[in-house]
Specification:
Blueprint lengths: L5 H23 L3 H11 L6 H8 L3 H13 L3 E6 L2 E9 L1 H22 L4 H14 L5
Antiparallel strand pairs: 1-2
Length: 138
């Protein structure tokens, strides 16, 4: 079967997903990076700024303005680590959790529309394959 390379197909899919998500993010007043941060913190495993940067593949210095904005909007908390005052511990506030749930709910609904053309078995196989090919960084 003739087909494009995986990178070319994945790139087109990523661009389509970003275009689908941008209006949702704009309605909620968050950038893509801000949502990535909220999503990572919603998982609960990431607690320090350095760990967050590593888990989302962001440069620590580039991440600071995003964290400053989220903190200024009372969506995240950043507190010194009692064990090491140089380290900042991160967490979502109730407002941050609510915003994350709202944005994620709309994104998941849009994803369901996108995947709606596939049979339930094909959808499940696609999601299983995508999960296997794109493990979360730790």
């Amino acid at each position: 079967m003739e087909r494009d390379d995986l990178g070319a197909m994945a790139g087109r899919l990523v661009r389509r997903l970003i275009a689908m998500e941008q209006p949702i993010l704009a309605r909620h007043g968050v950038s893509m990076w801000a949502y990535v941060v909220l999503d990572a913190l919603a998982g609960g495993a990431v607690r320090t700024q350095a760990a967050l940067a590593g888990s989302i593949g962001a440069d620590k210095t580039r991440l600071i303005p995003v964290l400053d904005d989220l903190q200024g909007r009372a969506l995240i908390e950043r507190e010194p680590d009692p064990a090491d005052r140089r380290v900042r511990l991160l967490g979502l506030t109730d407002a941050g959790r609510a915003l994350h749930r709202a944005v994620q709910g709309e994104i998941r609904a849009a994803e369901e529309d996108l995947l709606g053309a596939f049979s339930p078995g094909d959808r499940e196989a696609f999601l299983r394959t995508l999960i296997a090919l794109s493990p979360r960084a730790n």
